[in-house]
């Protein structure tokens, strides 16, 4: 890190029972989240789940109907956006089309009347950091999507704010560039040390970049966890269906025959069972008899949609294997991989060790 | 290949005939006749060189019209542009009764200038007019705004601003609505207040519209004279006489076509200079998307 651009000091964000409603609709319903200082937190959810609204409430561009926003140890609920020590990258980048790259980046510094010498120093440091040195006198219209993205990012980091908010910043880029930017964003965040709050509907983005993923559903927090925990132990059927490509297969317990009925009886409620595609393997000695409904070759893997009774289970098989749609197949799975959900509420049920042992035999 | 050329020409012909017949040929004829004397019955026009132009310099009424028009332009152009922008900014925001307000602002534009003239004639009428009635409420004496050579020019000027501003507002409103909301939010996050945002973002982004409006305002400051026929007929004592009105009177009331042609050429020359100036100088300073 060059001397002209010292590391940011991330600050924590605390959202306490945030609600937001417009006339009839309730966009957010008593949301409680705490975001540790210097962490990379992804707000993940399907469109319309309120994740962008939540971000805008943190930014101060929207005011919550109820609840408090705390940054560091200050209550900022009623504070204007520029007094919250944060910067933001918009989905559309929001670059000023009539200003060149340099002017766009130092827009805020100029607004706050920082001395010219200081401005130039910071500009050069950030331009070097983002690889924008050669583009400083270009207008945004003459830049590619990726370059515009970088300018927006440069504008966000030059102010050395302790929090950076991003609203689906990669959704306008093509797949390859998106992957590169993902790596770059993560590296940048770790290098500069600011707290990142990142809104996305793309679970892969959230899983790959974040320290902590906040999964939102219909204005409520569904689960807050580290990416691995979220993937390994989804706490609801919603989380199970949302995370992973393809997501966890969920099926009626009866698909497992007697074993399934036994599970339901033990749990004392109707069950939905879940299995990740990689937890199931085609195996000649497998207990589970299925018919392959579709086989999709993906290169390294072949994804098999297998019908067990009326239920569909997705299986990740090797790309080298040969399976044809319509043919029968036997499947096996490790019992500890089986996830149990209450069918009525969608909540995850804890399976007892005894159950795992019972399944194994 | 030759066939294509004929085809293209035939397609262009209708437009060309109209354009030539009503714009180019009359313009050239005007320039030519400005170097000839006015034909009278048995005395056809003869070449007089630049005599018609020299005569203009001694024509007090022409000089007076020029000054009047200059004042008229110097006030109507900036006033109508600024008022249009203020109105547009006002109705761009979200508030109750917005569409009614927008309509109210735009109404002057759809009225014919003659009707506008009549409305304002009523406003300015001494004692009975709207303005004097309001003045009466404050015990101020009746005032003959249009009868006083010192104020008459401003009465016709106000009417032109009133007529223009609503029209220009529509263009500004359209331009304002193309500015994306995230730009405002991005600026807000950087601590830019409304005035800073207006000066550093809004104003530059609506410059193309401003340029367009400026061109129109300049043209209108010469062209928009219909209300003078209703309100003042150029009087009293030529105090509200504008160039185009003067040309009209010279040409079609006194039939001094030579003099009127010379004046027309002068206007044309000045307007072309302004157009070239806008094209080569202002255009470069404007950011287009």
UniProtKB/TrEMBL annotation, chain A:
A GO molecular-function descriptor: ABC-type transporter activity
SMART domains: AAA
Superkingdom of this protein's organism: Bacteria
Membrane-protein topology: Peripheral membrane protein
UniProt main location, coarse: membrane
Pfam short name (any one): ABC_tran
InterPro entries for the chain: AAA+_ATPase (IPR003593), ABC_transporter-like_ATP-bd (IPR003439), ABC_transporter-like_CS (IPR017871), ABC_transpr_MalK/UgpC-like (IPR047641), Mo/tungstate-bd_C_term_dom (IPR008995), NA-bd_OB-fold (IPR012340), P-loop_NTPase (IPR027417), Transp-assoc_OB_typ2 (IPR013611)
Gene Ontology CC entries for this record: ATP-binding cassette (ABC) transporter complex, substrate-binding subunit-containing
Domain ABC transporter as annotated: residue spans: 13-243
UniProt KW keywords: ATP-binding, Cell membrane, Membrane, Nucleotide-binding, Translocase, Transport
Record's subcellular location: Cell inner membrane
Family per similarity comment: Belongs to the ABC transporter superfamily.
Name of the protein in question: Carbohydrate ABC transporter ATP-binding protein, CUT1 family (TC 3.A.1.1.-)
Organism expressing this protein natively: Cohaesibacter marisflavi
From TrEMBL, chain B:
Presence of the UniProt keyword Plastid in the record: no
Location(s), subcellular: Cell membrane
PROSITE patterns in the record: ABC_TM1 (PS50928)
Domain ABC transmembrane type-1: 66-275
Protein name: sn-glycerol 3-phosphate transport system permease protein
Transmembrane among keywords: yes
GO cellular component, one term: plasma membrane
TM ranges: 70-91, 103-131, 151-176, 197-219, 260-282
Gene3D superfamilies for the chain: MetI-like (1.10.3720.10)
Keyword terms: Cell membrane, Membrane, Transmembrane, Transmembrane helix, Transport
UniProt record similarity statement: Belongs to the binding-protein-dependent transport system permease family.
């Amino acid at each position: 890190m060059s001397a002209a651009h010292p590391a940011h000091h991330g600050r924590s964000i605390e959202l306490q029972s945030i609600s937001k409603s417009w006339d009839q609709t309730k966009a957010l319903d008593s949301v409680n989240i705490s975001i540790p200082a210097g962490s990379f937190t992804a707000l993940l959810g399907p469109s319309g789940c309120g994740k962008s609204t939540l971000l805008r409430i943190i930014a101060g561009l929207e005011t919550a109907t109820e609840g408090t926003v705390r940054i560091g140890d200050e209550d900022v609920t009623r504070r204007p956006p520029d007094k919250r020590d944060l910067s933001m990258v918009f989905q559309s980048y929001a670059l000023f089309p009539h200003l060149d790259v340099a002017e766009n980046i130092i827009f805020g510094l100029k607004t706050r009347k920082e001395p010219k010498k200081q401005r130039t120093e910071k500009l050069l440091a950030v331009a070097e950091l983002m690889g924008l040195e050669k583009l400083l006198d270009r207008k945004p219209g003459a830049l590619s999507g990726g370059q515009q993205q970088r300018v927006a990012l440069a504008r966000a980091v030059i102010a050395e704010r302790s929090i950076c908010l991003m609203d689906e910043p990669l959704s306008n880029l093509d797949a390859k560039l998106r992957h590169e930017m993902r790596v770059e964003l993560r590296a940048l965040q770790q290098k500069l040390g600011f707290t990142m709050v990142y809104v996305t509907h793309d679970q892969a983005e959230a899983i790959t970049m974040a320290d902590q993923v906040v999964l939102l559903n219909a204005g409520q927090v569904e689960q807050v966890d580290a990416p691995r925990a979220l993937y390994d132990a989804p706490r609801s059927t919603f989380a199970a269906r949302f995370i992973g490509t393809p997501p966890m297969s969920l099926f009626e317990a009866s698909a497992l025959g007697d074993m399934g009925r036994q599970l339901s009886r033990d749990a004392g409620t109707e069950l939905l069972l879940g299995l990740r595609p990689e937890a199931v393997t085609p195996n000649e000695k497998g207990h589970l008899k299925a018919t392959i409904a579709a086989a999709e070759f993906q290169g390294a893997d072949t994804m098999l949609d297998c019908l067990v009774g009326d239920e569909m289970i997705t299986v990740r098989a090797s790309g080298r294997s040969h399976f044809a749609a319509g043919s029968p197949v036997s499947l096996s799975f490790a019992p500890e991989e089986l996830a149990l959900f209450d069918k009525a509420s969608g909540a995850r049920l804890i399976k007892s060790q005894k159950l795992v042992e019972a399944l194994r035999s | 290949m030759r066939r294509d050329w004929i085809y293209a020409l035939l397609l262009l012909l209708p437009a060309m005939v109209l354009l030539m017949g009503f714009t180019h040929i009359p313009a050239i004829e005007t320039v030519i006749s400005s170097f000839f004397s006015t034909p009278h019955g048995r005395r056809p026009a003869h070449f007089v060189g630049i005599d018609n132009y020299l005569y203009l310099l001694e024509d007090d009424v022409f000089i007076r019209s020029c000054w009047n028009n200059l004042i008229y332009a110097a006030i109507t152009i900036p006033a109508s542009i600024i008022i249009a922008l203020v109105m547009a900014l006002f109705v761009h925001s979200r508030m109750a009764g917005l569409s009614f307000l927008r309509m109210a602002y735009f109404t002057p534009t759809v009225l014919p200038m003659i009707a506008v003239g009549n409305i304002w004639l009523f406003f300015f009428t001494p004692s009975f007019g709207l303005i004097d009635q309001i003045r009466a409420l404050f015990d101020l004496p009746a005032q003959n705004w249009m009868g006083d050579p010192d104020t008459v020019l401003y009465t016709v000027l106000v009417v032109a601003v009133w007529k223009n501003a609503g029209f220009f507002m529509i263009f500004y409103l359209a331009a304002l609505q193309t500015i994306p909301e995230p730009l405002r939010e991005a600026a807000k996050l950087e601590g830019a207040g409304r005035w800073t945002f207006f000066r550093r973002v809004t104003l530059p982004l609506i410059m193309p519209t401003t340029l367009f409006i400026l061109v129109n305002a300049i043209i209108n400051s010469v062209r928009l004279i219909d209300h003078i026929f209703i309100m003042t007929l150029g009087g009293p004592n030529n105090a509200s006489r504008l160039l185009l009105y003067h040309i009209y009177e010279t040409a079609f009331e006194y039939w001094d076509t030579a003099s009127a042609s010379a004046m027309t050429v002068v206007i044309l020359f000045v307007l072309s200079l302004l157009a070239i100036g806008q094209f080569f100088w202002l255009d470069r300073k404007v950011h287009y998307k």
